């Protein structure tokens, strides 16, 4: 269920409280929730995931992304969260894992990672960053 994007980042579809134990067993140090509350009636509320994460000693951050797209404050928040993880593995989730992967990609581009490397990492996890490649190129150019 957890797809590895790079050495320390995983993306996932919606997780349940029970999945937090699996994340803990894998050494996940932070869970990032990229799903807006009440997006779907069957989703586990973020507060329940947060409580389970904290009980397991895992940091929790909510950076909700709607289908309206990404904003620079969201990209910056993702960069900050990834930096605050201190090299510990991070699990980001949304409905399918796509928004989490795309937000990770935007944060990496803003940090200066080459866009071909970003695309390769995402593809290795089964995600396509093609739809946001112009934004990735722009952010990477600004970083370098």
UniProtKB/TrEMBL annotation:
Q: Beta-lactamase hydrolase-like protein phosphatase-like domain location, by residue?
A: 2-110
Molecular functions per Gene Ontology: hydrolase activity
- Record's NCBIfam families? TIGR01244 family sulfur transferase (TIGR01244)
Task: Tell me what this protein is called.
Answer: Beta-lactamase hydrolase-like protein phosphatase-like domain-containing protein
């Amino acid at each position: 269920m957890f797809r590895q994007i790079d050495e320390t980042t995983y993306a996932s579809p919606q997780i349940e409280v029970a999945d937090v134990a699996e994340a803990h067993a894998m050494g996940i140090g932070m869970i990032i929730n990229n799903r807006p509350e009440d997006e779907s009636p069957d989703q586990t509320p973020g507060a329940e995931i947060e409580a389970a994460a904290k009980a397991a000693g895992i940091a929790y951050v909510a950076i909700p992304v709607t289908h309206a797209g990404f904003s620079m404050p969201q990209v910056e928040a993702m960069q900050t969260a990834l930096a605050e993880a201190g090299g510990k593995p991070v699990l980001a989730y949304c409905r399918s894992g796509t928004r989490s992967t795309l937000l990770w990609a935007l944060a990496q581009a803003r940090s200066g990672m080459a866009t071909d490397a970003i695309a390769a990492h995402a593809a290795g996890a089964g995600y396509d960053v093609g739809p946001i490649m112009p934004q990735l190129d722009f952010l990477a150019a600004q970083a370098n």
